[in-house]
Design brief:
Number of helices: 10
CATH class: Mainly Alpha
Structural class: mainly alpha
Shape: globular
Mean pLDDT: 93
């Protein structure tokens, strides 16, 4: 049990750090009178990649640093992770995502208070599609998460491991993968590709006393959950067919 508690603790911490820095850069870019206001998409995608890298550095040695329920499910479906650990990992990730989002709100509270645009405030917590087309939005999340999980599975193969072992070095290719996904495939939905990065902060947005926050957009909230799960399972299937 101590081993499981340690793994879950670091999944919690790693996911919280991921969301703190990831949602933090969106808040810095979108909220009024922030020093980073209007920083743009390149700043956001680069910081999200670094956010993932930081989470992996922290959690990698202890839990494997999934930091994403879709990754956990995909690895389990591919046979590289125990199904017995799936639920505890997902609970820890969701709690970490919620906590990280609360920290972003507390950190930027003054800026939330003077920002008039409810959509901008919601965007600092979770994703909103650029064009609302649920079928296309779902497809975007499926493809993005498929690429994420398939590349992670490929990186775990022996031929891709440097002689010193992946260790912390594994954080760098995954960070670059997140940056590439954001720059290339993030323009449609904001590339959630992670329910703990979208649903958990969306719940935080719903319960926090944010001035003038507006809707939580529950009508869209299923897309960044269902899409990543489907994409992760498809990646696991292809991995088992061609790489196992």
């Amino acid at each position: 049990m101590d081993g499981l508690l340690t793994k879950c603790l670091f999944e919690f911490i790693g996911t919280a750090i991921l969301v703190l820095f990831g949602d933090g850069v969106v808040a810095s870019t979108l909220l009024k009178k922030s020093k980073g206001e209007n920083g743009g998409w390149i700043v956001i995608t680069m910081a999200w990649g670094l956010a993932v890298m930081l989470g992996v550095f922290i959690a990698g040695p202890y839990s494997g640093a999934h930091l994403n329920p879709a990754v956990t499910l995909g690895l389990a479906a591919a046979g590289t992770f125990s199904w017995a650990l799936v639920l505890p990992y997902i609970v820890a990730q969701m709690l970490g995502g919620f906590f990280g989002a609360v920290l972003v709100y507390l950190y930027y509270k003054d800026h939330y208070d003077i920002t008039d645009d409810p959509a901008a405030k919601l965007s600092t917590f979770c994703t909103i599609p650029a064009i609302r087309n649920y079928g296309r939005n779902l497809f975007s999340e499926i493809v993005g998460t498929f690429v994420l999980v398939f590349v992670i599975l490929a990186l775990s193969m022996q031929n891709n491991l440097p002689e010193v072992g992946m260790g912390s070095l594994g954080a760098f290719p995954v960070a670059m993968l997140i940056v590439a996904l954001g720059m290339s495939l993030g323009g449609t939905t904001g590339y959630a590709i992670n329910p703990a990065r979208d649903l958990a902060p969306r719940i935080a947005h719903a319960v926090l006393p944010i001035k003038g926050k507006g809707t939580n957009d529950w009508a869209y909230s299923w897309v960044p959950v269902v899409g990543p799960i489907i994409g992760a399972f498809l990646a696991a299937v292809l991995y088992c067919l061609v790489l196992c």
